[in-house]
Q: What sequence folds into this?
């Protein structure tokens, strides 16, 4: 039964009462067999000072927290009713801070220095909706960066904090739930985009100025320095509607499965590069560079059975043969390689061959194809809801690889997202770029939502965050056409070739991020405009006809002055 109460949506207002515990435990209650809740004050030096919670400009964590102790099960924790009605189709953010204490099981069971703690919503005493998850560590506060969206309004809702093994104390500070204002965020991102992706340009017509002052000028952007791409396979390149949209709106490609080891060598010793060769030929015809995805895949269930059957010496030899075969055949053909896919979520080769094998793969790839940029590539890092894939863990992984001589040249964020939150994506990008100084690509973007109108909004969230961030250098979609995608509720183009609302939003954004200008040469012989980075052609209309010249606008903080010398 849906709740019939109607209220105006108020953005950025916390729906959790007594969040900062000014009234002690008022409103808070235990979950499960956890019977001990108590309020404590953190030492000032240990209270977090950085937060992505920008709802209130002066917000700082309060330092007061609830301790849930005496927990006998992972389901035990604490809860609080949400005031007011939750609205369908709105994105709600879940924020706050989580830590764990030294419970009876902490030392014995704490894997990797922490535990997964989850924030869930219980609706009408029945449905449970995931609201966020963190990797919480003793003596350290970890910020919750969760989100949820409902299809209908519940009559009652409560937020619950649960997880960590029995006997481990859970600490919660400043838990908040609030509707996020995407339009306000977009306004901020437009201003940020103008600074990051555009530059003032002065076209100087110099000595010819006296004869052409006042002449008509038209500037048209031909392509962008920020590429968008899409994955392809042998089937979709036979579909005229797919090819039409791909060639018009995408600059790069990636093969869906055709370069993966399980495809090129399904049976030991029987190499098959026919599909990847055909796809490369297709991309060459249309001038599309291709990302090399992927040389290895760290997740065990993606490894061929014949590879699993090898002993360790044979596996080492097979890894070397794979590198030699692939990279000798395609040296110089792939500008990027995902070397060992999803190492945050799998460790097959490392568990078999030791800690150095991942770095070895990078070192050998760099030796055999020194012109390629080598990427790590993983999922959920940008979402804030996977304790196994935090930006901090990704940074640690990259640093460990580099210490062993791996030439990590780029960071891949796959971008398989649902109900994205812009501030969370931006936070991940900020942390990755600050710690590594490496370029970031979204490598497998698909935004999954059955409601195509909401899908368009979700897609805009991700694309605006990526385009406005200086560390991001490209976005590749993991398909775009209905019936030809891994996640079907993420398509931009319907199976009959019509472009849906999400596809139109993508096209509109690409149009928004393209610069054109018209005007006249001033008395000093200049034509000035502000444009997005990319390649342009200028058309000058004179008494003797029209003159054209191409030029490029690169990144820079100062105005770009270009002598036209027509």
A:
């Amino acid at each position: 039964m849906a709740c019939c109460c109607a209220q105006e949506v108020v953005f950025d207002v916390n729906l959790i009462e007594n969040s900062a515990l000014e009234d002690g435990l008022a409103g808070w209650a235990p979950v499960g067999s956890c019977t001990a809740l108590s309020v404590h004050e953190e030492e000032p030096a240990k209270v977090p000072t950085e937060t992505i919670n920008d709802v209130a400009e002066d917000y700082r964590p309060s330092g007061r927290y609830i301790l849930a102790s005496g927990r006998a099960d992972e389901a035990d924790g604490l809860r609080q009713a949400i005031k007011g009605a939750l609205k369908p189709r709105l994105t709600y953010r879940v924020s706050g801070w989580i830590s764990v204490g030294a419970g009876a099981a902490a030392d014995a069971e704490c894997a990797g220095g922490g535990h997964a703690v989850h924030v869930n919503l219980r609706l009408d005493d029945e449905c449970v909706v995931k609201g966020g998850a963190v990797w919480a560590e003793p003596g350290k506060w970890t910020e919750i960066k969760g989100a949820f969206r409902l299809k209908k309004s519940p009559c009652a809702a409560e937020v619950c904090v649960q997880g960590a093994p029995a006997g481990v104390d859970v600490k919660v500070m400043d838990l908040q739930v609030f509707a996020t204002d995407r339009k306000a965020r977009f306004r901020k991102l437009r201003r940020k985009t103008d600074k990051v992706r555009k530059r003032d340009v002065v076209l100087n017509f110099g000595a010819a100025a006296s004869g052409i002052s006042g002449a008509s000028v038209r500037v048209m952007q031909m392509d962008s320095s920020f590429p968008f791409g899409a994955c392809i396979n042998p089937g979709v390149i036979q579909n005229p509607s797919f090819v039409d949209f791909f060639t018009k709106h995408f600059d790069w490609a990636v093969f869906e499965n055709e370069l993966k080891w399980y495809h090129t060598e399904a049976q030991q010793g029987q190499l098959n590069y026919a599909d990847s060769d055909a796809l490369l030929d297709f991309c060459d015809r249309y001038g599309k560079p291709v990302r090399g995805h992927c040389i290895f895949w760290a997740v065990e269930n993606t490894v061929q059975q014949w590879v699993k059957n090898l002993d360790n010496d044979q596996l080492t030899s097979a890894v070397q043969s794979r590198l030699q075969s692939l990279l000798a055949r395609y040296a110089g053909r792939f500008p990027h390689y995902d070397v060992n896919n999803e190492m945050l979520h799998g460790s097959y080769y490392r568990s078999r061959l030791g800690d150095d094998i991942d770095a070895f793969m990078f070192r050998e790839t760099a030796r055999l194809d020194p012109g390629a940029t080598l990427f790590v590539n993983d999922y959920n890092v940008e979402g804030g809801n996977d304790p196994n894939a935090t930006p901090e863990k990704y940074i640690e992984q990259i640093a460990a690889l580099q210490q062993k001589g791996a030439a990590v040249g780029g960071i891949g964020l796959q971008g398989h997202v649902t109900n994205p939150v812009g501030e969370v994506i931006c936070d991940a990008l900020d942390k990755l770029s600050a710690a590594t100084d490496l370029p970031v690509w979204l490598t497998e973007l698909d935004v999954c939502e059955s409601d195509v109108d909401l899908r368009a909004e979700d897609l805009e969230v991700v694309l605006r965050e990526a385009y406005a961030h200086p560390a991001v250098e490209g976005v590749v979609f993991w398909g775009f056409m209905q019936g030809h995608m891994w996640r079907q509720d993420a398509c931009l183009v319907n199976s009959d070739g019509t472009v849906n609302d999400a596809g139109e939003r993508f096209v509109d954004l690409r149009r928004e991020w393209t610069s054109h200008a018209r005007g006249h040469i001033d008395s000093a012989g200049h034509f000035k405009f502000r444009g997005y980075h990319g390649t342009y052609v200028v058309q000058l209309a004179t008494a003797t006809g029209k003159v054209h010249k191409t030029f490029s606008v690169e990144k820079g903080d100062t105005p770009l002055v270009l002598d036209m010398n027509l």
User: Anything to note?
Assistant: The two ends are 72 Å apart (CA to CA). Residues 104-111 have pLDDT under 50 and may be disordered. The first strand starts at residue 28 and ends at 31.
